[in-house]
Amino acid sequence: MKILKYFILLLLTFTQCTKKIEKPFQPSIIPLPNFQNITEGVFLLSNNTHITGNQELSVVIDYFESYLKTNLRISPNSLQKKTQILFSIDEEINNDEEYHLSITKNEIRIQSKTAKGAFYAVQSLIQLLPTKNDTKEIAIQCLEIKDKPEFAYRGMHLDVARHMFSVSFIKKYIDVIASLKYNTFHWHLTEDQGWRIEIKKYPKLQEIAAFRDETLIGHYNDQPQQFDGKKYGGYYTQEEIKEIVQYASERFIEIIPEIEMPGHSQAAIAAYPELGCTGEKVEVATKWGVFDEVYCPSETTFKFLEDVIDEVVELFPGKYIHIGGDETPKTKWKNSAFCQELIKEKDLKDENGLQSYFISRMEKYINSKGKQIIGWDEILEGGLAPNATIMSWRGNEGAITGAKEHHNVILTPLSHCYFDYYQSENENEPLAIGGFLPLKKVYSFNPIPEELTKEESKYVLGAQGNVWTEYMKTPEKVEYMAFPRAIALAEVLWSKPEHKNFEDFKNRLLQFQDRLTSKKVNFANHLYEVSGNLGRNEDNKLMYSLSSATKDAQIRYTLNGNNPTENSNVYTKPIDINETTTIKAASFKGQNQISNIHQNRINLHKAVGKNITLSVDPNESYNAGGKQALINGISGSNKRYGDKEWLGFFGDDVTITIDLDSITTINSIRTRFYNGNGQWIYAPKKLSIKFDDTEKQTFNINNDGLLVDFQAKLKNAKAKTIKIEIPNFGVIPKGRQGGGYRAWTFIDEILIE
Ligand code: ACM
């Protein structure tokens, strides 16, 4: 008997020793905690872990237990109490979102003031766990974290009007942003192309405004525009909205519904023509853009919008209603006798005053319901509604003006927060609206504009990433565009600016991506993308250098036009460029190509590397390559003007002077202009060329199509300096996108041959 006992004991010991426990995850939390100290040892999480805590925190405890069960097949119970996880309220903590997380060998202790703080502790804790589990015990690294956010408003937006997404997808989106400690979901529910929230008092919103007859295919700039001929639409029922609001609240996400007014309202006017200024019947819009059909500031409209707000406030318990306010053309108001009379009656200055009257009146109503309004920065025009929060999107200016007037502001500038822009220069990127916003630029964002004093910067609540879905038909595409840029923004908003470090962030992102994969999130991965740069070495020789954002891979390249393979040249140092060359390169791990192919043709024409001067600077948003980009031998993208090869000038006439060092024979001068009229970009109508002191010659430009080629064929011209005058297209005709404003000019490489 004794021997048997001994044998069993031995067996037990043996199985315990050989039992496989995965090594703990190296802490790689995103957003980076304020304070984190890794200590000795591991905590073992298993079915024998006892989870307990303050009753007020039970919603978070339930959430965590359910997470463990669903994702890791761990169901803690109180029978064994081998280890313990304790959630407690700490009255000494004074920020609702703050938490302390202490992990020692026998206990995980989570302290917070509120359930919200405890929820953020759990999100950090989850990031210390594996994404899947085949063992009975999970080792968690012992450590100490004290953490709270830098900004109180941490938002992600989603436009469900241009394209609509299922309830289950909205929940998935909320899950991911909650895991990044975002606290706000801005739900863009109404647009020209569709009304997506059920309003029971107005059934035609569901019957008519929720559906469009067809949808634009391809890019808005494609000529001719084409349509799919398929009816598209839908809306969220009030029951579905309640379900989503509840789901979000369990994840401490407040939903801000956006009901657009007075612009972007063509769908509602299609359902109820009396809301417009002419009463004419219009269609729900089938393509993108800004439309003249806007609400008329009539009593009929105010009654309608107040009724809508009555139903909206019942559905959304949060503090804010977003009333839009952006991109409201005033054409209809200018031509309306009623509007002109109203301007006089209310002693307003002009149509901007009328917009201000519109917004202030709706603000008063919404305030009377106990809610605050948020509006896009155009609500500053004509005078700001007294209690409004400004969402600054056209740049930082709206935020600066708002904060200086002591209004709360939220930053969401095009330059750093528009996740509908391209994120890679690769030609194979899926179609996007335009622009260029790579991950690194998002990460570099500072939501406090430099122009604000310390006192004024207190009005900056935070920032938000915007996901406009004109070019995102599917959930997979939304995920591709939103992530990882929303991950970078999460760290911008939560972590201390002095702790920000992009290299470190990328390493943590590699781990976070596994979490996204396990949740089947189709994130974009450009971490190994190769980029190239043409420069001169100290001997003034042209060299092309290659680099990738992440170091632990090999870059391989070819110079003969073939795609790189695992046998191609390994990049170790900048490549000599002595002749016109096509470079193709990609990142490899062993035999596996892990990036897209980077491709560049370097055309060694006569101006490459010479001196160039410009009469005006390009706009700072479209000046990535600097003036040298015009004569660096590399042409811009055929699809996009936001790369570092195109230069963009807003409204200016431009004179370019190229100095060729010595008298040179010139047979041809070529360049290209971008002509994306939907983005206010127009090729010039003509240009002039002047060689040294000779008379200038003027050439007409046929500005058809998206890319306009220009070539001046010359018969043995000789010159040292070439002066090219490019007059701006001028004012965009009324009725077009940007009508009334001067056009942009985008210029590509100037090839001197
Ligand atoms: C906006 O992007 N029109 C706010």
TrEMBL record:
Q: GH29D-like beta-sandwich domain spans which residues?
A: 544-597
Is Hydrolase one of the keywords UniProt gives this record?
yes
Q: Where is the signal peptide?
A: none
Looking up PANTHER family in the UniProt record yields: BETA-HEXOSAMINIDASE (PTHR22600), BETA-N-ACETYLHEXOSAMINIDASE (PTHR22600:SF57)
Boundaries of each Beta-hexosaminidase bacterial type N-terminal domain copy? Answer: 26-147
Upper classification of the source organism reads: Bacteria, Pseudomonadati, Bacteroidota, Flavobacteriia, Flavobacteriales
Instruction: Quote the EC number.
Output: 3.2.1.52
Protein's name according to its UniProt entry: beta-N-acetylhexosaminidase
State if Hydrolase is listed as a keyword: yes
The family assignment reads: Belongs to the glycosyl hydrolase 20 family.
Write out the entry's keywords from A to Z: Glycosidase, Hydrolase
Catalysed transformations (reactions): Hydrolysis of terminal non-reducing N-acetyl-D-hexosamine residues in N-acetyl-beta-D-hexosaminides
Give the Gene Ontology MF terms in alphabetical order: beta-N-acetylhexosaminidase activity
Which CDD domains does the entry link to? GH20_chitobiase-like
Enumerate the spans annotated as Glycoside hydrolase family 20 catalytic domain. Answer: 151-496
